[in-house]
Amino acid sequence: MSLLLAPYNDSMRLGMGFNSYTQTLCIDKAVDVQRPKSVRAENPSQVVTYSSKIVEHLSEVVSSLNVSHCLSIRKGTVEIAGNGDNINEDKIKSSDLNAVVSVKVVNQTVVAEDDAQFRPMGGVIPGTQRFNDSFGDCYVSGFITGGEFNGIISMRVLDRSKVANVTTGIKRGLRSAKGATEFTLDMDSSSSQSINSELLKDTETTITVSWMGGGQVKAPQTPWTMEAVYAAADAFPLLVSKCPQKTWAILTKYKANRSFVDYSRAISFSPLEYDLVADFTSSLFDNYMEYKQLIKSVQDMMINPQNYKRRSQISKNYDDFLTLDVDVLVAVRSAFRIEMNKIVQTVDILSKDPHVLKTSGKLTAEPTNESVLKIIRKATG
After folding, report:
1. Residue 268 domain-assigned?
2. What is the C-alpha separation between 5 and 20, in angstroms, rounded?
3. Parallel, antiparallel, or unpaired: how do β-strands 203-212 and 138-157 relate?
4. Which of 52, 220, 258, 306 is 20 to 30 A from 186 in CA distance terms?
5. Residue 342 buriedness (CB in 10 A; 0-12 / 13-18 / 19+)
6. Is 257 in the same domain as 322?
7. In 3D, which of 35, 290, 217 has the Cα closest to residue 140?
8. Is 256 in the same domain as 292?
9. Are residues 148 and 16 both part of a single domain?
């Protein structure tokens, strides 16, 4: 079974309570742990994982960064762990092709002893909201030292009549198998070199890079290009061996702690199980970002109405048109914001009780505004 991990931050301490759904810290010393001894070897062996894939949804990018969908919904943006920067959601959503290149390097794993003792608080009973708020669903039981590198390459075809041909050519250059999302990260001969330069001339390319560990991964005067991303990914493990840092916290669920099980044996309660709502929250995140994008489109219609055509000027009969009347646009924008607030309220409910998804139909209710409903159904497929 794979480890339960969360992006590391300097506030984390061994034994601290944690909510894995919202990725928020809870009470300090939720369990008593013996601080393990760690020795850094001069030439540490490494576990290196390379990943390179083409993604369709923004939620896939968030998952690859190991960032909580719930946290991103609450903040209204996707914050990259380690540097506090936000990814360019608009570029990713408006692009015709998004490729994610990531390298994860593990130099050392430090885990607390198995005899960690749960520390109850008087009057705070497992299964109550006060317990969930205070302790979360797990605790920090260790740290992974190493590094993580992520590069997001977003391409938008400038000539909209060539979208299919250009994206197919780029995928072929990336050595992506037909119908597959993965592509080969060729370190000896950069995959980007095999892409026809004429194809790249027809695209607007945006590159977002973040990393933890490894120090300086490229010369400051070198711009971020596809070749630079590939070269940095290639050299990253060696750089991390020289300059590692804490990158992830290892989490252990309370139900896996013997002392907690003994303590709560006489109490009837359902522990927080966020695996039940992971896929649903991912879909909510994509819808939230779709609403956010639509609000920007409506705002642009209000500011720059001259950039939009009247229905009478369009040869095709579109059913999902919007009038440029300001009062209507303001009403539609307000309706979108209401739906975004509903999503925020939904993840707040799920963070408190993930089991409610099985019993409540309100969480999947569609917008009541007909215009909004038509637009959303088209936008979200």
Report:
1. no
2. 8
3. antiparallel
4. 220
5. middle
6. no
7. 35
8. no
9. yes
For residue 16, the one-letter residue type is M
Q: Are residues 279 and 259 in the same domain?
A: no
Q: What is 286-331 written as a DSSP string? A: HHHHHHHHHHHHHHHHHH-GGGS--GGG-SS--SS-----HHHHHH
Instruction: For the chain, report the end-to-end CA distance as a whole number of angstroms.
Output: 34
Please indicate, yes or no, whether residues 204 and 300 belong to a single structural domain of this protein: no
Do 305 and 249 lie in one domain? The reply is: no
Q: Are 138 and 251 in contact (CB under 8 A)?
A: yes
Do 97 and 139 have their domain in common? yes
Q: What is the per-residue pLDDT for 190?
A: 47
pTM assigned to the model: 0.84
Do 77 and 181 fall into the same domain? yes
Query: Which of 28-42, 86-100, 114-128, 142-156 has the lowest average pLDDT?
Result: 28-42
Report the candidate in 70, 91, 66, 92 with the shortest Cα–Cα distance to residue 80: 66
DSSP state of 243: S
Q: CA 171, 172, 177, 179 torsion: positive or negative? A: positive
Q: What is the pLDDT of residue 239?
A: 96
pLDDT at 347: 95
Closest Cα partner for 33 from 171, 166, 141?
141
Q: Which two tokens stand for residue 290?
A: 């779709």
Q: Is residue 269 part of a domain?
A: no
Closest CA to 251 of 66, 71, 14: 14
Instruction: Specify the DSSP element, H or E, that contains 203.
Output: strand 203-212
> Cα-atom radius of gyration of the chain, to the nearest Å?
24
Full residue range of the structural domain in which residue 212 is found:
4-263
User: Distance (Å, rounded) from C-alpha 279 to C-alpha 287?
Assistant: 13
The per-residue pLDDT for range 278-332, each reduced to its tens digit, is 999 999 999 999 999 999 999 999 998 888 876 655 555 555 677 788 888 998 8
| Band of pLDDT at residue 56, cut at 50, 70 and 90 | confident
Domain count of the chain? Answer: 2
Q: How far apart are CA 19 and CA 368, in angstroms?
A: 33
123-137, 198-212, 256-270, range with greatest mean pLDDT = 123-137
